[in-house]
TrEMBL record:
Molecular functions per Gene Ontology: DNA-binding transcription factor activity; transcription cis-regulatory region binding
InterPro entries, sorted: DNA-bd_HTH_TetR-type_CS, Homeodomain-like_sf, HTH-type_TetR-like_transc_reg, HTH_TetR, MftR_C
PROSITE patterns (UniProt xref): HTH_TETR_1, HTH_TETR_2
Region spans: Disordered: 1-26
Keywords: DNA-binding, Membrane, Transcription, Transcription regulation, Transmembrane, Transmembrane helix
Membrane spanning stretches: 165-186
Organism from which the protein derives: Streptomyces alfalfae
Domain of life: Bacteria
DNA-binding residues: 46-65
Protein known as: TetR family transcriptional regulator
Domain spans labelled HTH tetR-type: 23-83
Stretches with biased composition (Basic and acidic residues): 7-26
Length: 215
């Protein structure tokens, strides 16, 4: 190996370590925000409390997040990324809805930290739906993930996501089924597991009859 190749390899390893450290710091602060919000209520949580819990400075927190709402919602970003990674890995001959459904099941069945496996997940999602101040941050994370899903589906179909509405329409239907299943899962008194609710939602989409036409 030449000296240039050695330096290049070391630079890549160093960059990888920095990336992991940044991600770990981000996740630590997001987890601290979730823990504090669930324990004390969002209104009682401050950025200073999150920074202290995560053992970082206020300045470091501000490099990652614009406020406590962004930090709390960021806990979901990694899950959306895993779903999209699973979607991109699905066989090319699957329809978009089937691919998204099976990507969700891959995430739910194979990811140890998937929502339905964590005791606090239901409480976090209920908080997201109950707190109006969290909605803008939540929608940003969701929209970013959905936009990536559209690009993945467009590539799978060989379509231009900017010119053809079908990838976006397919993703909207899939995300709607997912969101509906989540809403039922966190509803008071609901006992059905999230994976089964997701299966039911996608089955309902597949069974939806075509609209009748008249001459």
């Amino acid at each position: 190996m030449s000296s240039n190749e050695g330096r290049g390899s070391e630079a890549r390893r160093s960059e990888g370590r920095r990336t992991r450290k940044v991600q770990e710091s981000r996740e630590t602060m997001a987890d601290a925000a979730v823990d504090l919000a669930l324990a004390h209520g969002l209104d009682q949580v401050t950025v200073e409390m999150i920074s202290e819990r995560a053992d970082v400075s206020r300045r470091t927190f501000s490099r990652y997040f614009s406020g406590k709402e962004d930090a709390l919602v960021d806990a979901l970003r990694a899950d959306f990324a895993r779903i999209n990674a699973a979607l991109a890995a699905r066989p090319a001959d699957e329809s978009p809805l089937t691919a998204y459904h099976r990507a969700l099941r891959t995430w739910l069945d194979g990811e140890p930290t998937a929502w339905h496996r964590l005791p606090r997940s239901g409480d976090l999602l209920r908080l997201l739906h109950a707190e109006p101040s969290l909605l803008p941050a939540y929608l940003r994370v969701q929209d970013e993930a959905e936009a990536e899903s559209v690009l993945i589906v467009a590539r799978r179909l060989g379509m231009d996501a900017e010119r053809d509405l079908r990838p976006a329409l397919a993703v909207s239907l899939a995300v709607g089924a997912f969101a509906t299943a989540v809403r039922f899962w966190i509803a008071p008194g609901e006992s059905e597991p999230l994976p089964l609710l997701i299966d039911s939602a996608f089955a309902a989409l597949a069974a939806e009859p075509a609209p009748s036409t008249t001459d």
